[in-house]
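Researcher: Last one for today. Full complex below.
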Amino acid sequence: METILSLQHVNYSYEDDNGELIPVLKDFSLEIQRGSFVCVLGHNGSGKSTLAKLLNGLYQPDQDSGPILVDGLNTRDEKNELEVRRRVGLVFQNPDNQLVTTVVEEEIAFGPENLGLPRDELQKRVDEALLAVDMQEYRNHATYKLSGGQKQRIAIAGILAMRPQILILDEPTAMLDPKGREEVLSAVRRLNREQGMTVILITHHMEEAAKTDRVIVMKNGQITADSTPQAVFSQPQLIRDAGLSLPQPTELTHRLIQEGFPIDKEVLTVEQAVAAISKMLKEK
Amino acid sequence: MAFITTEQLTYIYGQSTPYEKTALDHVNISIEKGEIIGIMGHTGSGKSTLVQHFNGLIRPTSGRVLVDGVDIWERPKEIRSVRFRVGLVFQYPEYQLFDETCQKDIGYGPRNMGLSEQEIEERVREAAERLEIPNEILQKSPFDLSGGEKRRVAIAGVLAMRPDVLVLDEPTAGLDPQGRKTVMDLIERYRCETRAAVIFVSHSMEHIASIADRVLVMNQGKVELFDTVPNVFSQYARLKELGLNIPAVTEIFLRLKEQGIDVGKGIYTVDDGVKALSQLCQGRVHHG
Amino acid sequence: MVDGISFGQFYPVRSFVHQMDGRVKIVLTIAFIVFLFLATNAASLLICAISLFFFIAATRVPIKTYLKNVRAIIPVLLITAAFNLFYTDGGTVLFKIGSHISVTTNGVQTALFMAVRILLLIISSAIMTNTTSPTVLTDSIESLLSPLKWLRLDIHSLAMMMSIALRFVPTLIEETDKIMNSQKARGADLESGNLLRRIKALLPILIPLLISAFRRAAELADAMECRCYHGGDGRTRLRVMRLSWRDGVAITVFVLLLVGLILLRRM
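Model: Here's the assembly. Have a good evening.
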């Protein structure tokens, strides 16, 4: 599969109040394939959010760093600045702090307006983005009257209207209730499945990671695991060391294995746990 | 005797305006000392409005709130003393931090109580210990801390008042798994060490199942269910209707039961599940 | 408790006034405020009020929204009225409070006029902000002030700042409410003590509020950059500003109003 994002030996550090350089990412290399749904996990301060901001050029890597290439464009190149931001759409945690206007339609048009698109194209982009997050009937609504989940979907639509190639979501569900969380996640999954959008989801919710193609675990600015969710979550020690937890069905099967039960260890969801337990009991 | 009781507690927002909305509708509950109560309900169900009545931040439109047998609005001028007895930790409490050092910030509540400097220091030390806040952090500015540390300092600021009831509104929201675990452990420990009542609002069924004694389910300002963990989570269909879930393990064992594999009822935590399966398999060995 | 809609929030429906050009609305609002101060007798204030009422009806914004806007300024209204009541001389003395303050017929009249003026002023500004989205407001202000660009002033940024400020008003009110409650839960006493003490008691609210406002501003700036915002250069608009027959109608109404006011002034 085609590589759409690549980081080669990237270093990033920032200066603290005392003028000391604090490294965040050290010799960090990663490649993301077009159309994949990747989940990034890690404790607070592991460098996940920094990674997101490096990918769309909001942050620049250190002088001695290797390049970050977005679909072949180097993020460091100043003439690529706007194009990199357009191609790599970034959605943040707090929907209230990323909405610029108070009307849904105008909110979605904000990005494309900055791109200087003609008016009929703006209208088309708004329609298309509203459809993608299933919010057509909210076109003329006030953004401040929407629920958290709806606000976040509008934030995503605002990014989609710029027709990005990669959608990065930095803990998009952290401030939402279960209903809002499900609304946002199903919209994102649909984008990936139906439109082939490359998605990078940064999250603290292990259940969200279970339903992606690839899970990357970060700890202190480095990758400690990078594989399928099944493979990553079958290493409980590694998960614990990274300050994470297991989805409850996985935790159950691991505990059963510890107790000596002959059960399949690659369990992530409720359905898989049910199948594994009933299979085990039948074989006994 | 119940420590916190509500009698026909009703609260109407914007009464006699066009925006009138009943947020709480004749709520009658009572909570004993030493209990852990988990509150759940979708957004707008009245959970947050309810918990703000416990310490007198909101005055009921009608009905009463009794703390230790006394109507808290009997002497409105003394409502502050209720807030020291019923400690309320808001959602994202780290946004309340303001003082130069964490030490001073945690001491804000005790200082408002009018305690002596020595007593304040003692309480700050105790609260910091409970939340595993090391000394060097106490001397730092609260704005230089990580998200998880800030949350702990903010909770310590309420614990330093040594409340008889600790109320927390979504205490784990926005934290990473490690942070969530730390906070949940703390809640349980506070109950064990002080025999205070703990009331917490949560969207995580797993958290509620793992530490709560009773569960209060709110819906449209009314008490939908208020019962023990088994009695609430066994009402699977009703909870689904309300847009709520049950713990993943509970769901696993419910589905197994539908497939004819009966491993017994009352499985709400991973421990329960492991135990039930062990018993089932041992039973099979004995009989087979 | 705040429920999202507060003063100056755009109320999105389609109406005659909503579809008017933003620039015309701004100019007419300013003109109306000038009219209010030209109106020196009861009859002229009355025709101002009547024309305003027609505009309210043409906004299709529920009347309760306006009532809420008015409720928010009742204290200002009362204080202004009181000042005028007690400190206007002339006319017949109605009664005296102590030996210095006397209430006269002139005082009552001035107080009443002033209160009505402020009331109408607030409602007219509310009509504008209730029917004009922040984006349109930004664009309109930018367009109206564009002659100043020759003075090398960054009009776009100025207009953008204003519209963002308006967008964040309800968010920050809600935040203030929350922080205040958090500190009250820790026993904050905001209601007793002398002035100095009270100001000191506000610090635990002001500091977190300020910090939160900065945090929000930083996050919003990032989010805007992520959406390729780079100032006004090369920006296109979803909403195009174009004068329509509605603007013509509104302007005609205003001209008639002005004529009426001039006539009444002469009488």
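The beta strands of chain A are 3-15, 21-33, 37-42, 68-70, 73-74, 88-91, 166-170, 198-202, 214-219, 222-227. The two ends of chain A are 42 Å apart (CA to CA).
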